[in-house]
Amino acid sequence: MFDVGMASSSGKRMKTMASKRKEKEPEQPHSSRFLSRKNEKHFKVVQDRRLLMERKVGMIPNFAPQFGEQLLGNDWGKLATYPTPANIAVVKEFYANAWKIGDYPAENYLGYVRGHAIRYDPDSIKNFLDTVWAGEQCQFALCMEEGTDFDGVERVLCVPGGHFQRNRTGSVVNIRRTDLTPLAKYWMTFSHANIQPCSHVSDITLSRVLLLYCAIRNLNVNIGQVIADEIRVCANTTNSKAPLGHPSLITHLCKIARVDTSAPPFERPRKAIDEAYYRQYYGGEEAAQPVPPRRTRRERGQAQNQASAETHEAEPFQMRDMYMSLIGAQLQSIHSGQVATVEMIVGMYDTPPAHRWTMEEFHNVVAWPQQQVIHKLCEQMHDVVIVNVILSRMCMSNVNELICEVLSSRVFVIECYYFESMNYFAQVFYD
C-alpha cells in the first residue's frame, strides 16, 4: 500500500511538472511573420527605431600599425570586413520576435523571421565570424565581475592627464573621449559600430572601456558572447527610441537560416573606418604624414620617447575639438547678441536717434567667429522687436543671415526655427 501511495504521489508530481513544462513551451507562431499577437503589436514600436549600421574597418599601417596587430591577434579579422547592406524589414521583424514576453521564448538567443528560427547564440556568431574559442576564461567577463586595476586601465587607454570620471561615492563611471589615446579612439569607433553598438561618442562607459582595454592588451574575450548579449539587451530594452544594433550581422544570420533577404529596402553600412577616416578625424594635416618607423630604445632616450608619444597623442580629433571650441564661441556670440539687443530695446526711447547703434558698432559687440551670420539686424528700429531663436541642433555654420525688417507702428514677435535644410523665418506673428 505504501509503495502504491508513493507511486501515485509521484505520478501526480510528474503530471504537475509536465504541465508546468508544457506551459513554458513557446507558443506556435501566430503568423508567418510573428510568434504571437504581442510580438506583432511590439513590431509597431520596433518600426520607429532606426538601424545603427556597422562599419567596415581598414588597416592603417602608416598611422596606427598596432590596431591591425591587435585585431588579428584577437582573431577578429572578419569582424572588421563583414558589414554589407542590411535588409531593414527583416532586421525589424527579427527584433520584434526576439522581444521576450514572460517566459517566452523558452530558449535564449533564439529569434524568428518569416517561418525560420534564427539562432544568435555565441557559438552561431563565432561560427559566422570564423573565430575560435577554446573555452578559456573570458578576461572581459572577469573584469566586469571582479573589477580590475583602474589605474592600469588609464595608463593603457588615456593620454597623460586623462582619467576615469567618478561619481560622488568615488566609483568609476566613464572616460571622456578627449582623454583617450589615438589608438583607443580608433578602437572605440570600431567597437561602437561592430561590437557594442552605441551612438553616444562624447564619453565611453565602463563596460566599453574594459572591452577596449582587453582588446588592446590582447586578453581573452569571448566575442560571440559579448555580441549575443548586446543583441538580446537591444531586443528587450524599454527605451523605444534606442537604435537597433548589428543589422548587417542579423541579415547575414537570417540568410544562413534561409530567409529571403533579397527584397528591398536596404540600408548601407556607415562610412568605413580607414585611412581616409583617420585623416579626417584624427589630426587633420598632421595625421596625413606617415608615422616614422619605430626605433629601439637604444636609439632614443626615454625623454625623447615620451616627447614623441605626447606629440602623436595630441593628434586625434584635433579638428573635431577645434570645431567644438568654435561652436562654444558661436553660442557665446548669440548670447552677447541677445544681451546687446535687449539693452538697445530698453534704452531705445531715451536715446536720441542720432546715437542709435550702427551695424558696425553692433558687429563689434557680437562678432560671429569665423563666419558672419548676422548681416543685417535692423535697418531702422522704430518699434520694439523681440527675436527668439530656437535651434534644433548645435551646428550653426549653415545659418547665412538673420534679417529683421521693422515697419512703423508695429510690434513684432519673430520666431526663428532652424533646421538642417531651412534657414529662414518660419512664422511671423503680429499683435
UniProtKB/TrEMBL annotation:
It comes from the Eukaryota. Residues 75-260 form the Putative plant transposon protein domain. Residues 20-30 have a biased composition (Basic and acidic residues). Residues 1-36, 287-314 are annotated as: Disordered. This is Putative plant transposon protein domain-containing protein.
